[in-house]
Amino acid sequence: MAGDILAVQHLLQPAREHPVTVAEFAGLARSIAEDRASWEHLVQYDATTRWYHRLRTGPGYEVWLLSWVPGQGSGLHDHGSSSGILTVLDGELTEHTPRGRLSHRAGSQRVFAPGYAHEVVNDTLDGAVSLHVYFPGLTEMPMHSCSPAREEHAPA
């Protein structure tokens, strides 16, 4: 079909009020990330514990804002029956999984399914901020003991 798809109104899908697909949840995270005025003033850094703030909820999902001072980490965990999207808003975070180590800089996103185990750490000398969308909303975060694969990638 040739022409401008926006000119064919009956082919356009109406925008949903709340996301329901993984792509829509990723889009929600990107739109919040781009709207710094909606979250930047809320960020706090706490040297004794990871700081977090529930930013938004909707039917079947929730959005969390987290800050990370240098050296802070989540511990190895999964998210129970929830899927999720991790979006780095500022700084850089390192994700450790049984398959290896991944660095995530501001703007990157990571999608994960229920039961996906990982550890997120701020291995840099600067603070970091991340956005986490969980669907369904997070009801558990089981902690795991460190695996040999994780220990091989541990910072010295």
In the sheet with the most strands, the strands line up as 1-2-8-3-6
Low-confidence stretches: 148-156
Number of DSSP strand runs: 8
If you average the pLDDT, what whole number results?
Answer: 86
Note the beta-strand portion.
25-35%
Helix content: 10-25%
Distance between the termini: 57 Å
Secondary-structure-derived class: mainly beta
What's the SSE pattern?
A: HEEEEEEEEH
Major sheet description: 5 strands, antiparallel
Rg, alpha carbons: 17 Å
- The total of helices stands at 2
Q: Outline, from the CA principal axes?
A: globular
Describe this structure in words.
The chain is mostly beta strands. Helices cover 12% and strands 33% of the residues. The protein has a 5-stranded antiparallel beta sheet with strand order 1-2-8-3-6, with helices on one face. It has a 3-stranded antiparallel beta sheet with strand order 5-4-7, with no helix packed on it. The protein is globular.
Salient structural properties:
33% strand; 156 residues; disordered C terminus; mainly beta; 3-stranded antiparallel beta sheet
State the gist of this model.
This protein is mainly beta and 156 residues long. The chain has helices at 22-34, 148-152, and strands at 51-58, 61-68, 83-90, 92-97, 100-105, 109-112, 119-121, 128-135. The model is unreliable at 148-156 (pLDDT under 50).
